[in-house]
Each structure stands twice: as structure tokens, then as C-alpha cells.
Amino acid sequence: MTEKIKKSAAIPAITVDDGSRRVPIHNIHGEEIGVFYFHPTDIGIIERYNHMVDGFDEITRPLERFSGDADDAAQAEALREAEKRLREAVNGLFGGDAAGAFFGGMHPFSPVGGAFYCESVLKAVGQYISEQFDAETAKFSSRAAKYLKDA
Questions:
Q1: Domain ranges of the chain
Q2: What is the reported pLDDT for 68?
Q3: How far apart are CA 22 and CA 120, in angstroms?
Q4: Which of 10, 86, 95, 145 is 20 to 30 A from 72 (CA-CA)?
């Protein structure tokens, strides 16, 4: 006798190649300190990055209240507000919790090498975006040229 097909309770998943890459974040000692996901062919990422960099002064504006005259509570609030703004901007840039990957182990406004840690991160991110976008664009152009030369 033939068995009846039973309905499965599991919902199948659909897998789509969205071009994303898993990118480890390393410190200067080569140790992995986080991981984020990146879409190197996202044509909006350069504009979002430039917008974030252009708005960095606004992101850090709460730190203007961070002075020797301010009490500890006011300084702590200024840091929280600036950190919140920065995390929102970084997460908006990548469309996920990239801020957690970059700043999970160190406060973004910690001083490193005479600047904020987040400034070092943003510089490295900008360079990475530029290199990856250029590489993906070159691959696409090469492939597209093959189809367009007969047109």
C-alpha cells in the first residue's frame, strides 16, 4: 500500500544571492574583533557613506557639552546621545547591526591615536567600500561589455 504524503510543519526557505559578503573586522594585531555583512554592489552605499561623513559634526554635536565644567551625569548623557546617533548612522549605512560589530568591544568615542576610535573605523570603512565597489564595478563592466559589443 502506498503511504500518504504528510504535510510538513517546516516552512521551506528561499535562498537568494543578494551579493552580500561576510566581512571580518580585525584589529592591528590581526585578531578578529567583529563581523559585518556588506553588499559591495549596493549603488546607494557611497551616497549613504558620504552623507554620514558629512553629518559627522551633527552626530558628535552632543559632545560639545562634554567639558570639564559639566557634571558627570551631563557628560555621560552627552556620550550616550552621541553614541546613539553614531550607531544609528552606521546601522543605516549597512542596513543592519554593523555598529555592534565595530563598537561591541570598545566605545566609539574612546581616544585612539589622537582621534576618536569611530573616526579610525569610518576611515577604514570608507576605504573598504571604495575598493570593493570599484572591484565589483570592474567585474560588471567586463561582463556587460561582452554583451554590449554586439549591440
A1: 34-137
A2: 63
A3: 21
A4: 86
